Sequence to fold (718 residues):
Amino acid sequence: MRIAKTLAKLPRHDGFWAILLAGPTLLGILVFNLLPIMGSFWLSLTKWNLLSEPRFIGLKNYQDLLSDSLFYQVMGQTFAFVGMVVALELVGGVLVAMALNSKLRGAKWLRTAYFLPFVTSMVAVSIVWGWVFDPANGALNMLLKAFGATPVAWLSDPNIALPSLAFLTAWKGLGYAMMLVFAGLQAIPAQYDEAASIDGANAVQRFFRVTLPLLSPTIFLVAVLSTINAFQAFDAVYLLTGGGPANRTTTIVYWLYQNAFIHYNLGKASAIAYVLFAVLFLLTLIQWGVRKKWVYAE
Amino acid sequence: MRLTRLARVAAILVVAVVSACATRSDKLTFATWGSVDEMALLKPMLADFTAKTGKEVELVHIPESYFQKLPILFASRQAPDVLFLNNMTLPAYADSGALLPLDERLDASPALDEADYYAQGLEAMRWKGKLYAMPRDLSNLVVYVNQDMFEKAGLPLPRPDWSMVEMLEVARRLGSNPSQSKDPQARSFGISFDKRPLFWLPYLWSEGGDLFDPGFTRSTLAEPQAIDAMQFYADLAHRHHVAPREFDTGNAPMAQLFAQGRLAMFVSGRWSVPGFRKSLTFDWDVLPFPRGSAGSIVDVDASGWAVSAQSERPDDAWKLIEHLAGKEASTAFSDGGLIVPARQDVAEAAGFLGAGMAPRSSRTFLDALATGRPTRTPPNWGEVTTVLDLELGPLWRGEASASQVLPRAARRIDELLRQN
Fold:
């Protein structure tokens, strides 16, 4: 009775309830997201080593970044890395999903097997691949040697280290891309395929003219997700190469970390974060703009 | 009515958040890194301190990424009263005014006497002439030798005053010939190779080279002695093939190669001793680092305790340091053989030298202190190491010569020194 009375006394106004119920989350976003985001903009205008007081230096961090050749190298490498990862995940994801969609025996087991790396922690994956890539005792070079080929310095050859990292990142993400594409494939009604086949289309034509267009919303989703994911790549770089050899695997997020917590240069690191934000924002705008041109039914 | 209820809810939230953030105890806080074994030694010492003084100590144990977390504590005004650090990182803190100078406290201390400590250890803890930490231990490098491999090769153990030239000669005869065994798995090597500065600085210094001029105004890496010394070190792996290249051993640490009996001479520090006592199945001993044209000079690096400038109880903080840096605690720290104590009286005592235990020539660790020197670092040492790592990479991979890479490395370090 008393509870009902108390409840009755509470205001009926929707706004009150909205604020009350959303309050804790809003407070969390304010304290842990918005304030730090604004704070780091202020920090990007200062020189600060965490130990003494921040000193205001205006836009100097941004000017320094734009005149630093390493900045362009890191940006280029990040885009190359993202490009490789997204391409591998998309093509691999579609191929594996198509194969598993075709009433293959043991497909359920294979689906689980392909999905396992995705639910494994990146740290564990990196450590295992560190062994696989080991130049002297690693599985990959053992295999090469068995065929009489020259061993490869997977993680210490400046030209190969970044593709190696992209490969392992894509290997880990492949299961997720495959799962989404698989779901997309299941949603395509079989009639379309049958109709095309009666009209005389061969398998390749059916794939490019029927399946792929109907799959485009899924592919778009996978592309966006794996782009975001690849831009955030840090763990594998941190654990396997430390950005080396010769800075050739330094991605933008690793560079940010290096400036903040190894060089104690928080101002520069914050400026990098804002430049990264601008780049990602632009990229997203482009992705949405281009989407209309190729994504079916939108 | 409505407003007050809303205000009450808001007030409860605010209080909850603020009280969660602001609980700061009255205990003395003490931050350190260290293994489980070290913590087992440390905790009774802290309990002993509390029993003697009535002051409670809150131990902030940061076993991983210590130097990434410590500055964040400073930035958030949560700096520990007492903090453990080493001489390479000290300048960054001292130069920013984050530490209290300790000279006057040490002079006035009834418990500690400067004369009991190795001068190199105290020197390592100074920045611009002022003492900022009391050293706990000194680490230097010696050459661990596999005596069985010497015997098999029919070679006598070199004398302690051996030279770099002798070292190369011995290494040639101890390792297997690369032209005979193609499989790196089966190859053995004369001497270890590690591209971290700690391990190439002895080669640089012993030939009369250095990283910086005395006032940190420029890098001296491009001077002829430095170029020769660094080239000699790279040649061990890439020209003479007496040291393993990355291709030969992959990620296997040098200590593992040494333990497997595939590495005859291993340049390492005191920290290898406890493990080697347990695991090595062959006879082993230690030799001083070989002499170059300037002598046998290895890094003498120190770790020790400092007082934060943010501390509200600097007197108690200093008392804790007096307790930890005293003879009793120092003996307890070094008895297990893990560290070389910064106290001369403790180092000379039987416990540390470990009579009857390997290595026979334990004194080598102490003798190397006299000729060694601390690694002098500028406040932005972190950035300097990144540049060194990047610019010296081609030299360590055998893709470029020292005269090609060092001038550029020196120029880039000069730029960094100007920013200090």
